[in-house]
Amino acid sequence: MNPLKSIGGTLVSGLVLAIIIVFATKGDHVLSGNVAGSVIIWFHVLAGITWIGLLYYFNFVQVPALGDAMSDEGGPGGAGITKYVAPRALLWFRWGAAATWLSGAAFLLHPGAPTTLANAFMLGMNSDPVNQYALTIGVGAWLGTIMLFNVWVLIWPNQKKILGMVEASADEIAKAKNIAFMASRSNTLMSIPLVMSMIGAHHGWVM
User: How much is the pTM?
Assistant: First the structure.
């Protein structure tokens, strides 16, 4: 059976290939690394790609496409997207956001982390001199936390009204569309300095 014919098989195969590569290329640089921290960061990056990738899909593809579909008289409309695509995309989107935040927190909580979770959220200002790593990663942590709040408190509850998952009046749906749209666009805006912060923690602000 071809594993590429299912998403589960594809993911498992990718995991197996990654493990094979680790053992095939294992040298002193690998042996000296922090295994737990590396695995957490690996998961954190994978979850983050899922979350931000879907965020960009919504903003760059789905929303403009639905706008075009609504204005295309006699066209196929956007019912297929709103019924079949959006709910599934939002499932991966919101849990990708949760997994990204939780794995990021787990990394900062594990004993081998370069700084602590508390230091990061205090932007490194609880030490003298200021902990620059904590400052840089802390900016990303705050942005990620605000974005997570937007996903679960603003975007998802309002999308349920828009998609008809919960009952809502026409006025409530119109309001929900505006709130979800602005929260999603805000997250897209914040994702740019967020990525800079996450990379910058290890490579400097200029990356």
Answer: 0.91
